[in-house]
Amino acid sequence: MPFPNGLFWTRKVDAASVKVDSADLANGAVMRVEELDVIDYHTLLNSFMDGALSGEEKAHVSYVISWSGAGTPSAMNDGSEFRYQGIDTTATVAWSAKKKGFRFDSDPASTSFTNFALLANERNGSFYS
Q1: Which of 29, 51, 65, 99 has a CA positioned 20 to 30 A from the CA of residue 19?
Q2: CA distance 56 to 66
Q3: Concatenated DSSP letters for 71-82?
């Protein structure tokens, strides 16, 4: 298996990229990531095969996600492994990607449409207690 622990399409971002007061979610949150190094595998199938079909190229992505913080309180607790308390809210996203000879920019964040957004404090697994 080419991916550590079977995980793919996940990246740790610097904690400084996220602005949120976890004690007061009503203030909303912002995640701003600039020039994150990624690999462009060209197709979904090639990504599953870690570039074996058509290779890979270095690329960079940047994005800003903003959660409003205004919304309906929401909570869940399964009693043993997972719980959260938060706000069903709205979010906007602006996104861009670039590699040698190519650049893509999303529409402005103001044109975003929210199907689902949740801003929450959550505990799971060994962190449940």
Answers
A1: 99
A2: 31
A3: SEEEEEE-SSSE
Instruction: List the alpha helices (DSSP H) in the chain.
Output: 44-48
Spell out the per-residue pLDDT of the chain, length 129, in tens.
Answer: 455 666 666 778 888 888 888 888 888 899 999 999 888 999 999 988 889 999 999 999 999 999 998 899 999 999 888 999 999 999 999 999 999 999 999 999 999 999 999 999 888 887 787
Tokens 């607790």 sit on residue: 77
φ and ψ of 27, to 5 deg: -80, -5
**Which of these, 49, 57, 37, lies nearest to 3 by C-alpha position?**
49
Q: Sign of torsion, CA 7 10 11 16?
A: negative
- Residue 116's SS3 state is coil
Closest among 53, 49, 88 to 71, alpha carbons compared? 88
- For the chain, give the number of residues: 129
Residue with tokens 């000879």: 101
